[in-house]
Amino acid sequence: MSWTHRASARRTSLLAVAVLTAALPVGAVAGPLSAASASAVAPATVSCPGPTPAPIRLRDFNGDGRTDFAVFRPSTGVWYVSGLPAVQYGANGDIPVAADYNGDGRTDLAVFRPSNGTWYIRGVGKIQYGQAGDVPMEGNYTGTSHLQLAVFRPSNGVWYIRGFGVVQWGECGDLPVAINAPTGSKLVPAVFRPSTGIWYVKGVKPVQYGTSGDIPVSHRYVGTTEQLAVFRPSNSTWYIRGVGAIAFGVTGDLPAPGNYGGGNHIATFRPSDGTWNVRNGPTVQWGTDGDIPV
Ligand SMILES: [Ca+2]
Ligand SMILES: [Ca+2]
Fold first, then answer.
1. Which of 65, 91, 173, 261 is most deeply packed, by most CB within 10 A?
2. Nearest-angstrom CA–CA distance, 154 and 177
3. Which residues pair with 246 in a beta bridge?
4. 100 alpha carbon, closest ligand
5. How far is the CA of 180 from the centre of ligand 2 (A)?
6. From the CA of 146, how far away is ligand 2's center (Å)?
């Protein structure tokens, strides 16, 4: 796993300029931006890679309300979902973006292909939205019954949300983490800035929580609202705001927060042996080295 980020040399505070447009020219620079925010756009020579792997979300393929163990195998494009038949959908290099695209309560298989900026959604079809280098951030940003395709563009810190608009929120080096709004069931753009450990959640005061090298794992661990949280690979510890520090995992584990039933939300995927370890819950062998947990 690589979480290499070449942080911007700039340390300017994040500027939020919401620009709503009816028609979204994907690939175009969102505008008009203020002079200050435009200057914050990284020069072309600076690389701003997105997070690898992509953030893990709650995946519920069978619609029982609980996260299912699932992996995408890049070498073959096959999905392995616990309790369901294996399905070939996608190809090497694709980013798995399983989510409930048709609103039936079950997660659908889907991939985002960086080479052509196209989403392939099983049972729905393919939709071009985004471009190479974009981080897919699909989700429900409108509070309606269906989610929206969305991408975060690390090079300019712009969110492109299909059918909603363009939002400048973040800068080069930031990690995108859409957050459930405290009120209502919809997502708002948010970023975690590794250089400072500061979270910028749209509509909320910036919060310092975490440090460089941490992996943002915000999630509803307790109660009904989402907590800011980070997983620190160096000591395999989860830091959950308002809850505290919880050591869980070993070196090399990937955080896999979800709703695993019985109030268990902390879990890891171990790439070396393909095991999922749920805190206070089961250890399940599901996947193998090289698989991407989804
Ligand atoms: Ca399930
Ligand atoms: Ca579905």
1. 173
2. 12
3. 238
4. 2
5. 20
6. 10
